[in-house]
Amino acid sequence: MDLYRKNRELDFLRIEAEELCVDYNGTVALYDASLKLKEGCICGLVGMNGAGKTTFFKALMGFVRPSMGKILINGRSVADAQRDQAVAYVPQNEGIDCSFPVSVWDVVMMGRYGAMNFLRVPRESDKRAVVDALERVELLDLRKRPIGALSGGQRKRAFLARAIAQRASVLLLDEPFSGVDIRTEKLMSELFLQLRRDGRSILISTHDLSHVREFCDVVVLINKTVLAYGNTSEVFTSENLSMTFGGMTPDPISGSISSED
Amino acid sequence: MLSSFISFDPLSLLIDPLSHDFMRRALMISSCVGAICGLLSCYMTLKGWALMGDAVSHAVMPGVVVAYALGLPFSLGAFVFGVGSVALIGYVKQKSRIKEDTVIGLVFTGFFALGLVLVSKIKSNIDLMHILFGSPLGISDSDVRQTLLICLIVVAVLITFRRDFMLYCFDPTHARSIGINTGVLHYLLLSILSLAAVAGLQTVGIILVVAMLITPGATAYLLTDRFDRMTILAVISSVISSLLGVYISYWLDIETGGSIVLVQTTLFLLAFLFAPRYGILKINNSAIT
Question: What is the ipTM of this complex?
Fold first, then answer.
């Protein structure tokens, strides 16, 4: 916490990615992608399926090694930033075994592991962080439920709570709105604005443009590379969007994309 | 033996065998091995490593033979071959298009066959039957010491890293994202598995070790939705099976390894039928969390 209050005085860059290239066994997934994300800023990562959004996240998390380019998070290498608990990542599909014998509380507590000692014994501060995170996503009442007994939307909130409990300064959220109902969507949007007020930076990937207008300060349009990057109002032009979505014309008002056929 | 069995005095039935040194030793070593295998079995079942457990336990065979032949501690040889088999499985899987379960089956049978050939060729005082089927009633002093040391190491590592291993089994992506080195955890867990397989070999033998490494975990998994409770239940059921198995083998004069595993299987069947929430008879739907 103190670290980023100190950093606040500068115009501090949370994420700095320069000319990233990622390929999987020769197939290029992402090339020449650069991104700068300031503190206290929500950035939308917009692109079609297969445009490289998830690859971008994986590169930022160090899960895939870029063949070129460099990444700094809070001015440090990805591995250092992870050790400092500076980045939290919520993948699109958690890919977990839902019959695993852990409760919602246990799952959210896992967000605190990195900050705990070697034996991962929770301190009072860890418990407070978990309670706070559970309150924010309105799951405190369900904290004793096994994770497998939650609905899809509740599970998404539980994993979001884990990222919040981590108290990371950078949150990477891959398609947080996919498969959630309107109520959860609203709760999440408010939560993101709250987190921004706390000075955290959030990178959200989405293919739903209405969310981007609602709360993204900056937006990155990608299709294998960064097509456009800047303030939402400047970047969100119909040419840019049509370029991003491969010729399909998005409705500039509702944000939904109407396909020609 | 028969006289104590027909005396119908339950106390003497339990206490009389303790007058034999070999029984005290067998009970002590079996319960220690049962405890560590029970603890480890939780991770094996949750991670889906049953086949891996089978593979490692078979692959240690040539290591045991070579170590005995060279006069080294058997656990050292077993450990080298156990970890070696795992590394080989990982390598073949990565470098070829063959699916993992095929690679596992291929590698462990190869190692096991090598072990069998070595036993037949290297003339030593190794009893093949002891390796294959265990012999807690005839365990030597040096084997007792080695097995106890292994148990200590396994318990120490599993308790120190219990949260990390749990997180690694549940969500390795998150573990990586908070800066935990999951590669180290992966190989640490496999090393512990190799050690536990060597310890289990002493009581139930190579063929049945995999039962020690999965059945208690599976039983406990049917009884609870809490990880901590699952580990406790697995250890309890595993220790009870080991003790009861040794006693039953003494009372009825039957094979000890088979007896231990049969008790484990019976406990699993009881859980399968009568577990409060997940048993097929669902006696009480509302109980326990």
Answer: 0.88
